[in-house]
Fold:
Amino acid sequence: MITDSFTIESGILIVALSGRITINDILEWSYTLIPTRLPVKDLKILLNASTAEYDFFIDEFQKMDKGVNDLCNRFKTVKLARLHSKTNEISLSVIAHDRKLPTNYSTRIFMNHNNALEWLMEH
Structure:
């Protein structure tokens, strides 16, 4: 399951992933990230996947790349902090992180919530 909440004061979209998560789950959720719902030019996302279990493989990453490109076309910049605690999910995120991505997209992997927030708040 994917849930999220956004507050204009912080400008950060807080996302929680839990249970079994597929590429299609992530893509369907990403299509809800539109400027009318999130009234910012620079989108900052804190994605907590510490209780998620990714159910996808490396050969599905092309779908993810298209979703990232689509998202980056909707905002001036996209900054994604990923929180992980499980080895498999960290490994898949590292592989995703090392792919060629749009120039207005930045992402980092964290195991500590405060470090992720600190990075998101940097200009």
Notes: The mean pLDDT is 87. The chain has four helices and five strands.
